[in-house]
Design a protein that fits this description.
This protein has 114 residues and is mainly alpha-helical. It is built from three helices and no strands.
Length: 114
Amino acid sequence: MENNNASTGEILEAINEFSTNVDKRFTKIESDITVIKSDITVIKSDITTIKSTMVTKDYLDEKLGDLRGDLTLLMRKEDTKVAMLVKILRAREVITEEDKQQIFAMEPFPQMSV
């Protein structure tokens, strides 16, 4: 019958080697966790920055409304100039009354009787 029993010294040596390997792995995992925590901190900071600079729907709606008003004002000024030009052309008899009425009936600001 063979003696398959390991001595206490061999068992302790195997346990020591195993625990050394486990300690190395834990040290690496702890290092990786430290890096991950650092990355998460940076990501949280970036998210906070993004949130603080995001445009809200209300802000965007307000700005688009302002832009629409500004554009409408500019179009009305141009329409006034075109109306003056048409009146001058009609007064000088360059265009007919019918031409004048057709021009004034056009969009964006039609005038039916001028």
